Amino acid sequence: MGFPSRRFRSDSFRAKLSTCALLALIVVAMAEEGRAWGPTAHRTVNSSAVDTLPPEIRHFFEANRRILVEHANDPDEWMKKDPYERKRHYLYLDKYGMFPYLDLPHSFKDATFKHGTRRINRDGLLPWHVGEYSLRLTNAFKEQKWEEAKLAAAALGHYVADTRDPLNTTSNYDGQLVAQSGLEARFGATLIDRFQGFMMMRPAPATKIDDPTEYAFQAVLESNTWVNQILLADWRAREGLSSYNDDYYDRFHAAAGYIAARELNNAAHDAGSYWYTAWLNAGRPPLPGR
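Predicted structure:
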């Protein structure tokens, strides 16, 4: 039997390289798709946000709770068709130095002037997009476009909830930089799916927000303070285990479950506050029964 030709070995090597490159792209894509709270979290936030509202607008949102819940994950679906959409769901604060990240101006104009549009887009647009979407809901109320207002409120609730996901505030969002890949799905989705019944939702009543964009920045900064604790809880929960099994999730919930519950409650309060603020800024228009 003869040895394979040099050309055959070369072609085989190239094929293996191509396969490895493709697999790497798939892994990256899967990690990107897993970003942010999972579907259960977003539905929970939008539903609980209705309970924070004052009587003068609660009837409208209560009548449309099902729509708000059903469309709570629309922005994640938009990612599949619009590559730019992904940038609206996160802000890599750690790209701008140390807490409280004073190197990043909160004014979009000042931020792009200082760092350039390309870098700002790359490192995330979340708080600015919350400000823009708050204005979109205000305009829908002002123009009495009720169907548009329902969908805008659902989407706004999604983006607001994203500001309360600690892992949306760091470039190490999936634990991939410290050999803890898959963390985003474990914390933002599986943990909540498993222990939702133990996460009491009692968000504070909605209040008026003076500056929607700045409020979103403060939410992102607050949630960012939990990043290291979540990473440590995940690492310790896996110690001595060969997989992310029931024992792992019991440990992870004991150490980090309260963080998820706290941030989901904060997100529901914030979402209700943004809805209420949009209505106030629209001039308090009379809302229909449905």
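Summary: The two ends are 80 Å apart (CA to CA).
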